[in-house]
Amino acid sequence: MDSSWLKPISEAKYLATDNAYRYRAILRYFYMQHERMRQYLFPEEVFAFLKEHEEFQNYTDDDLQQDLDQLVKWKNLIARQETVNIRTIEEFKKKRFRYQCSPYTVEIERMIRTLEKLGDLFGGSLEKTRFDRLYSSLVRIENIIQNDFQEKREEINQNWEETFDYFKKIIQNSADYIAYLNSENTEERMMSEAFLVYKEKFTTYLRDFIVALQKTSLKIEKLLEDIREDDVHKLVAIVADYQMTIPRLEEMEVTKKQLEEDLFEKWKGLKEWFLGREGRESELYFLQHQTNEAIRRMTRVVQRLGERHHNFRSRKKDFLHLAKWFSELPSLVDAHRLSSVVFGCFHTKHLITENDATENFYRDIWEEEPTEWTVKPRVRHYREKKKPEAIETHEKEKQEMKEKFLLEKKREKEELENLIQDNKIVLRELPVIEPHIRKTLLSWIAKSMTKQDGVVKTENGWKVKILQKDSSSIQLKASDGTLTMPNYVLYVLEKGEM
Which residues form a coiled coil (predicted)? Predict the structure, then answer.
């Protein structure tokens, strides 16, 4: 008998104990966010969620902290101390934690949801073929609509069920696998030398998934946009009508209208997962971002491991080979030349400054203010005198920076509006523009290249469609130079607000 069978499972204590309703509500929220690929949550987010419900109107911050500590003891939650972005003195004095639900808790909550909704069990993975299967199933739905629903009700219902089975597996398995890659145990294992053996398999697996996802997701998005909502309502009515005819021993608890509403909400969930909501990126975009981040993190880990290994490698043979080069040179002048290439200049001045004064990615170095650097004496026992100082909030400076930023954005929007002629911006016909306007226009073009229809939502709330007029090149003139680029035209479809 396996000894693990005999061990008590502390993770299940929250289901049947005092204050179980509080623990279950907290962990259900963690599980819901886990399914949306948000692994780490702050206590403030959990508290805000609980206060939305009537049962927790008298619930306090202290009660929440006590419950979180108890769930950590039961191993339902994993606490990780937050050491960056400390904003107040209270946060500095009081340790600030983020929490992640443990794998046991995820599986327990998933089992409870399974019992509640009689769903299917699954395992975490990123299967690239599932998107192809989902696309094929959606194509069959489109064919059913185009043929005026001539197929049998059984076949329509079966195709509907297959579509959402594939969709459910995509959501659940990808969420589990991304959470696995972001877990603390996986990060620790990545830092070991043994990870180098699996690095190629991991990166190839993730890269193949991203390539397949990008190929298929555009087709799915286009198909979902083309299917009309009226046709979906007709399809849902047929599926609901068929499911209501299935004989059951117990009496149906929902009416046909309620069943149709539930089925249509499932369709809306599928559509929003791929296309997103108004003002929000889609979950598909978030999945792509998380997968790319996992590849970048693995690459950085491998690079650090390689540097660590390189530091301990003997360079005796390298120096012997280099010494042989020097010994074969005919003159001292040639030796100096080789030394300058191998070792560089021996009298180079290194300049040190403080950290960047701005977070603006596009700001040039000559636009920064000069920095003063105090030279300290090179004395062994020198110590800089320190005096206790109060912590300043700099509220006034922050407000001034905020107002300055908003003013710059407003001025930029006005400059862009001045470039619009007949609801479009023709780059060939533009006068000399400022560099920040050119960067904004180029960022819009870059975003449109990832969209099949070329339509993008800009940061100032506009909806812009960008098309290349022909294969010729144009000269985009700015105050700091001229850029040669393709002949693009920007059509302003909508002017929303930020």
Answer: 391-429
